[in-house]
Amino acid sequence: MNYCTDSGVWTEPQCVGLDDDGVQRQWLRYYINFDNLGQALFAQLILATQDDWPAHMLVGSDVSGRHTGPAVNQSLSFSLFYMLSVIAMAFVVINMVVGVFVDAYYKALAEQEKLEKADNVHHRKPALKAKDLPNVFEDPPMQSFREHLLTVVMNKKFDMLIAVFICSNVVAMAFQSYKRHAWQTMFDEVSNAFFALVFGAECVLKMAAMRPRRYFDDNFNKFDFFLVMVTFLGYVVESLGDFVDIDPSTVRLLRMLRIVRILRALRLIRAFKGLQVIMRTLVLSGSACGNLVAMLILMFFMFSVVLVNRFGTMCVAGDEARPGKLGVTCLFTPDDSLLDRHAHFQGVGIAIYTLFRIATGDAWGEVMESATLETPRGLGWGFSYTPREPVSNAAWGVYARLMQPSANVTQATATALEIAKEALDEWYALVQGREDEEGWPLPNGDGADYVTLARLVLPNCLTAAEAMYLQEHGVADCAVPGSYHSSGPLDCSTTCGYTPILVYTIFYLFFAVAAFVLFQLVIGVLMDIYLRVQEEAAAQPACPGCDHLTITILKRMHRRWLMHARAKLHGFEHPAIVSRSVSMKRTWGVSNRIAPVDSNTRDTLIGCRHASPPPPATATANTSEGTAELAAPLADSTNTACTTSVTATDALGGATDRMHWAG
């Protein structure tokens, strides 16, 4: 899996000397190869992360031999090996490892819950408070306009109609585009006004039917009201702009509020139960995922500090084009070895961003390979074997042609630093003061030969000592420009990376922990909570409405008891006759509120005409104004026995919003 830097050369023996551009030819290896056990293991790890694996597969399918370059589809069968590696490593082994981590996480979570329960055994649970119960609001009077209006707005068909308008609004917003036609602008204005009126009318109808306090008790209603107010605020601002002088920037800012109308699409959550389950999952997962996210952020910060301290001095694309002599130290770094402008380690902020890119598996192998840039040492990690000393034949030939050295300077006595210094002096003499021209630091190609000579004698990167030597001799400048706290003269640092084995260890350790463990744990927690919420939504209570007794249920019980008692007094054959779905107000003239019982009626109802009453089954309702004791009537169909014990006060008929039921 070798190749020559000169694309016109195919064999290793021919990959010598200079190419047509005067650049030293080098016989290199593709950084994903199988030349030894270490490189093969690294290649399998890269394939397991699926980092641009099709490109690696195409390189492998073009392998032609040990001493020849790539040939298209020469080893096409080798691509099958890559596909099997991806299936075995990425789809099976990695997911099994992730499953083990997720299972261990749930076991640790279960043990933690057991410990917390054991700690809470000796602690008394706090009593249920009124604020812990949901609000209960009184229904509007029977047969009133508010009752009919409430029936309409609470109907499922009404919600589906609003959902249709929401979908239509989303479709209407999809007609927007850059450089719109006149009809698009007109359609947008008309549709926005129409839907603003529709949703505004919905808001008014619900508020009239429920009254403001009950309306704003629902979070969805709060969200609807916010969208309606923002929409009408935008219209008000546009209208005021025609009569009052308003700062244009303020008008533009307020007009941007119209973008908020895209949030109307979120109202579909209310219409579909499945979306409500997902939203509830996201809300409940906040605490569980928060711990994992905090751990992830801490790990990102720790690794970013380490990488900034070790790789923060490496050159980034564009550093070689800094004005004057500020970019000289980066002229020696090959273009394909410069770190990307959006993925480097020159600061903690950009380092965290780069680590996030690595954690997502987006071309992280390229960043890691660039971090292994070293001065040539003949170790065979995919770089040149050319040593610093003595000067190579190709470099001496270019030096003799360009510089015409004196007779006392020979290839054996010349040093790489001296040659690089002379070449940079000649380069700067040609380009000085031309920073604004296109192509800097080689405007119009001037000085390219001298830069090539400097790269030939000091290939890949500079050590701190080499950079300091060039600065001391006035051909380089390691200062930081600007007026920041770190600006000013600075000792020169190396532009090289680190040994490949250490770079591979650091990067792969981070990728394994971030992508294979923490990210997958977050997904596992979300799925677990989602399944729990689904089960809760699907489970039907054994006794609907008996979770806690509300004022509404208590009123219904009182009305049912009153209907049964009056039925017996009037001599109906069976009390079930009064259980028809007939308005209570129309039949008996009783209002929706619990009416206080007068003394004559109470004396008539209390007691037993033929037998001693058994002990009544009582329940106590504590309200803000008093206590009501209610005993369900026990009666047979022949009116032979009855037991009724009631203490009904105006406190039960009041608009009490919260209560505590015990009994």
Task: Break the fold down into its secondary structure elements and pairings.
Layout: E1 2-4, E2 27-29, H1 37-48, H2 53-61, H3 78-120, H4 145-153, H5 156-173, H6 182-210, H7 212-215, H8 219-240, H9 248-255, H10 268-271, H11 273-311, H12 348-359, H13 364-370, H14 393-403, H15 416-431, H16 448-457, H17 464-472, H18 500-538, H19 551-569, H20 584-588, H21 599-605, E3 618-622, E4 627-631, E5 634-635, E6 642-643, E7 646-647, H22 650-653, E8 660-662
Antiparallel strand pairs: 1-2, 3-4, 3-8, 4-7, 5-6
Structure description:
- The protein is mainly alpha-helical.
- It is 51% helix and 4% strand.
- The chain contains 22 helices and eight strands.
- It has helices at 37-48, 53-61, 78-120, 145-153, 156-173, 182-210, 212-215, 219-240, 248-255, 268-271, 273-311, 348-359, 364-370, 393-403, 416-431, 448-457, 464-472, 500-538, 551-569, 584-588, 599-605, 650-653, and strands at residues 2-4, 27-29, 618-622, 627-631, 634-635, 642-643, 646-647, 660-662.
- A four-stranded antiparallel beta sheet has the order 7-4-3-8, with no helix packed on it.
- A hairpin with a 4-residue loop joins strand 3 (618-622) and strand 4.
- Helix 14 runs antiparallel to helix 16 (448-457) and helix 15 runs antiparallel to helix 16.
- The protein is elongated, with a radius of gyration of 40 Å.
- The N and C termini lie far apart (82 Å).
